[in-house]
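pipeline: protein-struct stage 2 | run 1193 | D-xylose 1-dehydrogenase (NADP(+), D-xylono-1,5-lactone-forming)
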Amino acid sequence: MSWIAEALLNLHNYRNSVSTKKSLLEKSPHPLRIGILSAAAINYAAIIDPIATHPSCTLHSIAARSLTRAEAQIKKYSLGNLTPPCKPYGSYQDLLDDDEVDAVYIPLPNGLHAEWTIKALRAGKHVLVEKPMASNAEEVREVRAEAEKAGRVVMEAFHWRFHPAAHWIRERIDGGGWGVVEGVEARFKIPRGALGRDDIRFSYDLAGGASMDLAYVFSACCYFSGQPTDSDITVTSATPRLHPSDDRIDEAMDATFTLSSPGAQPVTCHAIADIALPPLLGIIPQVWELTSTVVIELMKARVEFSNFSVPTFMHSITVREKDGEGKLTGKKTVEKVWTGGSEWEKAGVEGEAWWTTYRWQLEAFVKMARAKEGGETYTGPVVNMEESEQVLRVVDAVYEKAGMPKRGL
């Protein structure tokens, strides 16, 4: 999957002359120095490329389970040519012990997220950790306690949440013009074969499973529901398709749940996640299902956000009007949003239309880290710890309803 993301990114960068922008960029004399824990395949799209277009941070180092692996990734992306050169480390702890590192990005397997986030916090680093933040909701609470003790930032990398297109929808939901939210459906499917059968996403010990890897769908349901992060969660159905050799792993999950809170109308959510979608007729890979979609049913409108997980690439927001009886009128508008919005205005950021979701995310992380260091309050877009806990409370409850063990036990 990562090679697909990298290929799309390279095409995107070519079309937007990003290499020229990188060559003209002047870095701050006092940048946030970021290290990466793992030579993961996602690194280029998720952090290496975004850092190259950000004036206020630099890539300091990459750590892997062996020095050879770290050196190989540095060589692959010519990171030794940076000023100063990116350093390789043969263990994660060696990188954390380097006092020059201000912050770390953690793309390790899910089951290692909480452990190494806590170790990074205790080493005095800010942390940008891949989704899901931990193996279960209890671990998120442990991470939050450590972050408060360390006085450092921890942010979960639900990168789609930082794109102006997502904010455009949420702002209008909160504004009330479409009426109250009645339901949210989110789906994300990956065709079988895109992930190897021995991929870490199929490992229970590493907190794998469709509900974990594609937690985007639960994140979208929670975010667009408009419900507070401490809302009650009631799972009414959870139907998994189990891994053929490990019934603790969900290759797919189809779950329905309700988010409710005092004084607000409950919102029914439907989430579908699949990391091994069977081929059509047994032979045709369903590549068209790669487009993630979220549909929000409101009293006065139906809003469909196509490609919500990576809106940098060809997203659309279709708003269909409803009449007084809640029926579709046939009138619709289609929007595409690339920059701005009130969420980013709070942080004084307009952004650029060519910024990827990961670049928007990095903008928020750097500003949040610097604000924390300066004793200031960051007011821009963020995935806060309460939201991270809410998403995993949903996932934990879904696994329980499905009769499956939650991760991290």
